[in-house]
Specification:
202 residues; 6-stranded antiparallel sheet; Jelly Rolls
């Protein structure tokens, strides 16, 4: 057993320099987005209003469309789920979200499934600000991204969002959350030199 782990640490070879080759990929920019791709639900069936907006888009990116959510006064927590999860290839360093809030209150989370099939709820941001904000969400070290089958590139899955309202809800103001470009930074995973392992275990 010791020999096996020693061989992995000694002969694991990155496809390229893992820190220098980092790619930024667009996950969703909501341009020409079909709302039939999502499912919105909550435990008490009181759902927010949602639509694609052409008028409230991030000034931090070149954008013509965004995903706008208007939270009703009586609404509780709710999920926004991709009907087909986004598969993320490679080792995720972080997500970046363009988010608008009008001091909405509460928290917004993302759901990820790691390479072992375990689901994780990770906070994106507390909605205690006004205007647009670029939010970085570190993923490295928070979920298991190792392939449970050697050299098989198993993808993580981005399932969607979860909104958690504040304890004290201000019913006198309109509450908006707008999500624009979603991107992810990834790098290639390490490859195990199986020939070297076989030599050592003989």
């Amino acid at each position: 057993m010791f020999l096996f782990f020693f061989s992995i640490s000694t002969f694991s070879q990155p496809l390229q320099d893992s820190k220098s080759i980092v790619q930024e990929k667009i996950v969703e920019n909501f341009e020409n987005f079909d709302l039939n791709k999502i499912k919105v639900f909550s435990k008490d069936d009181i759902l927010p209003e949602y639509r694609i907006s052409k008028f409230l888009t991030s000034p931090l990116k070149i954008s013509e469309s965004s995903f706008m959510i208007r939270i009703l006064d009586e609404a509780s927590s709710f999920h926004v789920q991709w009907k087909k999860p986004y598969e993320i290839e490679g080792y995720i360093e972080n997500f970046e979200f363009q988010i608008y809030s009008n001091n909405t209150g509460g928290n917004i989370f993302l759901f990820l499934v790691d390479t072992h099939g375990i689901q994780h709820k990770i906070i994106i941001v507390r909605l205690d600000f006004k205007g647009w904000k670029s939010v970085l969400v570190p993923i490295e070290g928070k979920i298991d991204q190792n392939d449970w089958v050697i050299n098989k590139d198993i993808k993580s899955q981005f399932l969607g969002f979860f909104y958690e309202p504040p304890k004290n809800i201000n019913k006198e103001k309109e509450k908006l959350v707008v999500i624009d470009d979603i991107s992810v930074k990834v790098r290639k995973k390490y490859k195990i030199n199986q020939a070297k392992i076989q030599e050592l275990v003989k």
